[in-house]
Amino acid sequence: ALVIEHQNITPNSFADRATKSLIAELESRTIEIVTATSYEDARAVIMASQIDSLVLALEKTEEQIVNSHEEVDLLAALQARQPEVPVFLLAERARTSILNNRQLMERVDECYSVLEDTADFVAGRIVAAMRRYRSQVLPPFMKAMMHYNDIHEYSWSAPGHQGGIGFTKTPAGNQFFEFFGENLFRTDMGIERAALGSLLDHSGAFKDSEVEAAKVFGAHQSYSGIVGTSGSNRTIMQACLKDDDIAICDRNCHKSIEQGLILTGARPIYMVPSRNCYGIIGPISQVQMSKEGIALKAKNAGIPFNADEKKASYAVVTNCTYDGLCYHSEVTEALLGESSSRIHMDEAWFGYARFNPIYKGHFAMRGDAKDHKGPTVFATHSTHKLLNALSQASYIHVRNGEDAINFDRFNQAYMMHTSTSPLYAICASNDVAANMMKGESG
Known about the structure:
The protein is an alpha/beta fold and 442 residues long. The chain contains 18 helices and twelve strands. The longest helix has 18 residues.
């Protein structure tokens, strides 16, 4: 909790003593307190860290309160970063003019009198609000996992380390356990724990997490990946392609795309990106993406292909390129959509694009999902690369359109490229990574 006791408060005044009594009461309840004696200090704390509540102690004249903008500006800065964080105001009830400052009171959750309310009562209200806040800001899977961990249910099944206790049997194992901490091992659970649902079946808290991720990233469906975007790319290709299907591929693709071609037996038609004299790899030209350009490449490669008779089952481009150049996705989709019914944008390094206006229109899940028309579009994001997730965390995002993939077919491919023994910490980090991009904080 951040407690602001402005330096203008008279030392040893009743307001000063009441504030210090409240701080002591909160600390007795194991609440970590950060104090600030000026609004500049408080703003620095707000911009540098996350807090679970803010307590503002006021000792101003009625005129100062009515005309004050400092408090409003401070709370606006806080709520831009943490919209739902609880804010408490401490003041003398006699200073009723606080209520006349509508801008201030709109940003305050509760107001208490330092002359009447006890420190025990106010501290209880603050702690209760902090608990509600901490619970409500958690995304679905992380919340469910923490709740399950609090139950302390014993496991008679895998994993064999049994909540980390197995590691404590040798000196090296004990150091390993102490280094990472018990929570990691207690939440490393077998998939038989039905209380959390199933990653492979997309049920329970896993499903809730993926539904929320789809809303955040602008998809019809999102699926959490735990074997990196290599696995996510192969999943999409396995779902879309079979022997001798035509795949239109960016020649400067990730090796997982080549692996997908080998696994599926699909026949690639390659689009070759541009490269300048400095070796910087640019985008694929519109000529190469056009129906005529792709038909010419197929003819030169000896591959029978006529998009007017039957479109390719899959097309993929790397967006952004490995040198950081991004495509206008609407144009790309329109061009490739003439030759392929499904388009995949490998955006492993571009998961942040939706959350910065500078990239508007240059990523797969642009705009509102309900407005989508045309080919089915996939995007894959390495959340561990440039968002905040553990290594191997990835997302598959889907906007259904032409020739959409049946869920059962998709999930067979998903299960093939996903472990039956997932590390739940990776799943939770993916859940949190999506949540961090939600709303104003993103």
